[in-house]
Design a protein that fits this description.
This is Outer membrane protein beta-barrel domain-containing protein. The chain is mostly beta strands and 197 residues long. Helix content is 10%, strand content 63%. It contains one helix and twelve strands. The chain has a twelve-stranded antiparallel beta barrel with strand order 1-2-3-4-5-6-7-8-9-10-11-12.
Length: 197
């Protein structure tokens, strides 16, 4: 089954990334974010690498009936000091169902704040490809090391889904285990993320 093969390859990649990102000899300027989620009908992988003012993004989504590939390159500008907001913009590419190539622009705004109990992170994203959008609000706690997330995403082709999730830090690593529920799809999902920012 294609989904099982995809998941097998993704988890092999996760293990390789865990080893690489926690290896003392690895030099990481700026940051890298890697995340994989899987449910009974879908599997999604995301990679974002930031070097200086430039961020490179790539993603793969496998679902019943097809696979989409996405990529982008964005330039960032940070505005504000007391309440800094990072804005990103740049070209985006999608290879929909591995049959149709689409090109557009991607716009992102995000904010991170430390708090007395942990942190708060908010992100909003829009792409001109199918008027796609994504929103994330995450609240993290230091003790215990647990984050709670709410996301919403959709496009002008009729896709809409919202999810709630909890992530738990794996001690002595940059990795987190993820568990969540997609409200519109009515599916539970699990995954792992690695964040070196």
């Amino acid at each position: 089954m294609a989904l099982k093969k995809f998941l097998k390859n993704i988890w092999a990649g996760v293990l390789a990334a865990c080893v690489a990102l926690n290896c003392p000899s690895t030099v990481l300027a700026d940051g890298t974010f890697f995340q994989v989620d899987a449910s009974p009908t879908t599997a999604n992988g995301t990679l974002s690498v930031e070097r200086g003012e430039i961020a490179y993004g790539a993603g793969v989504s496998q679902y019943i009936g097809g696979t989409d590939l996405n990529a982008s390159v964005t330039y960032k500008v940070v505005i504000g000091e007391a309440f800094p907001v990072t804005f990103r913009a740049g070209p985006a590419f999608q290879y929909e169902a591995l049959t149709t190539a689409k090109v557009g622009l991607r716009f992102v705004a995000e904010h991170y704040s430390d708090t007395s109990f942990g942190h708060v992170f908010a992100l909003g994203e829009f792409t001109t490809i199918d008027a796609g959008y994504f929103g994330l609000l995450a609240v993290g706690f230091n003790e215990p090391d647990v984050d709670f997330e709410f996301t919403v995403q959709g496009d002008n082709k009729g896709y809409l889904d919202q999810s709630v999730a909890a992530t738990i830090g794996i001690p002595e690593t940059k990795a987190r285990v993820r568990f969540g529920y997609r409200i519109n799809s009515q599916e539970i999902f699990g995954g792992i993320s690695i964040n070196t920012f």
